[in-house]
Every structure is written in structure tokens, then in C-alpha cells.
Specification:
It holds the Pfam family DUF1453. By secondary structure, this protein is mostly helical. The protein is built from five helices and three strands, in the order H-E-H-H-E-E-H-H. The chain is globular, with a radius of gyration of 20 Å.
Length: 180
Amino acid sequence: MQNISHYAIPIALVALIVYRRSKRSIGFQKLRPGRLKFRLVVFGLIGLLILSVGFMHPIHFIAYALGLGAGLLLGREAIRHTRFEQRVDGWYARTHIWVELTVLALFLGRIAYRIIAMMTTSAGTTTMNPNDPMQMTRDPWTAGIFFVIISYYMLYYGYLLREERKLEKAAVPAEVENPA
């Protein structure tokens, strides 16, 4: 039997990621253009990396396309339901709770599935190597769900950046007229 400490650190790390992701996904979030731009770049690079590795298994492009389409639909729905609120320290935005929960459930469900699959596969018959960066490309479901998340966040963050600029421009004249 393996030592429990082999699982404690990864489980604690996943719990921290889940906590931060859910805190960032649910409720009003402060619009920070720098962070939004950084996340757009990171998601874009991850998407390009996954796409470039996909040439090894061209059939996975179907999962990529389906994930991309589903993410764009979720992003469109999120944009339709986004609400903005101005507070003392800046603009805040939130989208529909069910869109937020759907994206979070996809993310968590896929992580849980991969962990369970790795733990239940016997050591002698496994083809899964968690240290292999190409492992993700062998499973079209994982890549497809990554594309759902990537396309959703890229569309939604791009929208938030555009709206934040409009909101800031609209707020400046009101402050100039009422300097008190």
C-alpha cells in the first residue's frame, strides 16, 4: 500500500485550485484589465499548444471543434447575462450563475475523472503517465473540454475588456461635471 503522503500534496493543491477557481468564477468580480489581458494571452497560448500537438492525432480535431463551439455558445450566453456595477474602487462584473457553474463543473469533473482513472488503473496495465505532457492529447474528451474552457474565457474576457473601456470612458465625463 502506498503512503498517504503521495496523495496529500496533490489533493491539497487541487483543493486550493478549486477554491480559487470557484471564488473567481462566482459573484461580482473586479475588472482588472491587466489580469484579463494576461489571461487572454495564457489561454491563447495553451490553445495553440494543444492545437499544435493535435496534429499527431488528427481525429481529435473533431473534439477541438466541438469544444470550441460549446465554449463560444457558453461565452455568448455569459455575455447576454453579464451585469456591471460601479463601486468605490472600480467596475465589477458578474454573469449568470448557471453559466459560471457549468464551466466550473466541466473543469472539476474532468479533473476528478482523470484522478479516478489514474487511481483505478492497475500499475501493470496502465498507459497513462502523468509526467508525460503528451498524455492529454491521447484523450479527445480532455482536449475538447479544454477547448470549451479556453474559448469561453477568451470570448468572455475579450468582451469584459471592451466593456471596461466603454464604462471607464462613460464614467470620466460624469466625474468632470461633478468634481465635488
